Structure formats: structure tokens, C-alpha cells
Amino acid sequence: MSIVKIKDKTFKTSISESEIKERIKAVAAQISQDMAGKNPLFIGVLNGSFIFAADLMREVTIPCEISFVKLASYQGTMSTGKVHEVLGINEDLTGRTVIIVEDIVDTGCTMKRMMESIGTRQPASVHICTLFVKPDKLEEDITIDYPCFSIPNDFIVGYGLDYDQQGRNLKEIFTLVAE
């Protein structure tokens, strides 16, 4: 188990790189099977999902497309509860199968807002794929079609997730150590 210090916080390894890759491969196989013949449009939510989205796309075996949207709801280690769209979706979603690719779903507020926003653009269907979900923290009634990991309500960094913009480059997942 490794320990890393990021700014004023200490984190310990909780999920290895090999475990992450294994789960992504399994989820990508399920998506490829479920979406065969549909040419889905994956919409990655920046900044956190960029590593996950890249690895997921490399494992998906069917024709597909990808785009990105940038939303902001975090400040430091806490969600502000307000979601701001910083970079929007430019693609025509009419009749498309859309898969939102998110790094982590905790309260579900961001996903609910995205689902509502995308829903106004007449897609054929909208699905959620997330690297992590915190079921005990969910406040919104949303369906997460493709979760890689269910985790406790801990603060994590690595593999695209950050603490105050630091730690995204870590290859494993690290959990905040109570200090």
C-alpha cells in the first residue's frame, strides 16, 4: 500500500491500476454487447473522466463516437451542490444513443441535470457509465447503467480524479486518510 501527500492531505492506495483496467474491460464488453448496431455517442464529462473515457473507448469493440462536456460542481473536497456548464455539447443528439461517461457519481445531481439537458435534444436513449458510484450518498433517483465500482462515501483521487486539481495523474485510486 502506497501513501501520497497532495497539498495538505494524505491519501493511501485503495484500488490498484490492474483492478481498474479489469473492471473497465468488463464494462466495455457489456456496453459493446448491449449497444451492438447502434453507433453510440459517448459524452465524457471533463475534467475527471478523461482518463477513464480514453481507456473505456480503447476497450469498446463496436463503432462509436466520443465528445466531451465540461461541468463544474466541486470546490476542494466538497461538492457545491450547484452544477455549471463550462463547455457544452455541439453534436446533434436527435435519434442518437448517448452514453454519459463520468468519473464519479455521488449525489447524482450532476447526472440528473445532464440527463434533463440531453433529454431536451431528442436522443433515442441516454445511459450512464461511471467509474465510481457512491450509493450511500445518492440523492437523486437515477439509473446508472454501467458502474465500474461502488465505493463508500470516501474522498478519492487518482486516475483522473483530483484534489484541488492535483493527483489526476496517479495510476491508482487513493483514499483520503483521516487526520
Entry summary:
By secondary structure, the chain is of the alpha/beta class. The chain contains three helices and ten strands. A hairpin with a 2-residue loop joins strand 4 (65-75) and strand 5.
Overall mean pLDDT: 91
Structural class: alpha/beta
Provide the spatial order of strands within the biggest beta sheet.
5-4-3-6-7-8
Instruction: Please tell me how large the radius of gyration is.
Output: 16 Å
How many strand elements?
10
Spatial gap, N to C terminus: 18 Å
Question: Could you explain the architecture of this structure?
Answer:
By secondary structure, this protein is an alpha/beta fold. The protein is built from three helices and ten strands. The protein has a six-stranded mixed β-sheet, sandwiched between helices. A four-stranded antiparallel β-sheet has the order 1-2-10-9. The chain starts with a strand and ends with a strand. The model has no long low-confidence stretch (mean pLDDT 91).
SSE arrangement:
Blueprint lengths: L2 E4 L2 E7 L1 H18 L6 E6 L3 H10 L5 E11 L2 E10 L9 E9 L3 H11 L5 E9 L12 E5 L5 E2 L15 E4 L3
Parallel strand pairs: 3-4, 3-6, 6-7, 7-8
Antiparallel strand pairs: 1-2, 2-10, 4-5, 9-10
Helix pairs in contact: 1-2
Supply the key terms.
four-stranded antiparallel sheet; 3 helices; single chain; 10 strands; alpha/beta
